[in-house]
Amino acid sequence: MGSIGSARNGIGFEDKAPMSPRGLRQPLSSTTILFCSIVLLSEITAHAQRNVAPAERTRGSEQVVVGHVSSVDPVWRTNDFGDRLITSIVHVTVEETLKGTAPPSVDVEVEGGTIGSLTLRVSDLETFALGERAVFYLQHSRRGTLVPHLRGLGIQKIDQAGRIRGSNVTLDDVRREVRAAAGQ
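^ thats the sequence. predicted structure below, dont judge the formating
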């Protein structure tokens, strides 16, 4: 073996014997365990976020409405923290008010959207398409605009069967829970 600084290896480090197959497996095993742990933790977190009860979502909301998206207009906005972001103004035709008072339509600001060829996707917020129905748990931002309460937890999309997307919870179940939590 060469010594430190020898010309034999050309880089000034001591030559070492090649790693044994066991030596190679150990780092891969640790890496695999770390990767699997991260994936599992993110799945548990995502599952926990989706399973927050409507009553809990309702508590801090100023308004809870059921409605459908009549249009989505992406604009540049400065958020409450001073960041300039693409924000979608989601125009919601209100079908039903479950908490608070709401006009026949509301504009909800949701971070993310596309302006020209530039798209901003926000991992904890939904994107919207024309005609989609949802339960919107709303609060006012510091600037006075309506935003989803608890960010992504402030939106529960409704599928064609009248269930909360990705669950067995019906819109009627949500209505009951929201009204009970709102004291109505």
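Strands lie at 63-78, 84-99, 105-111, 113-115, 118-120, 133-140, 146-148, 155-158.
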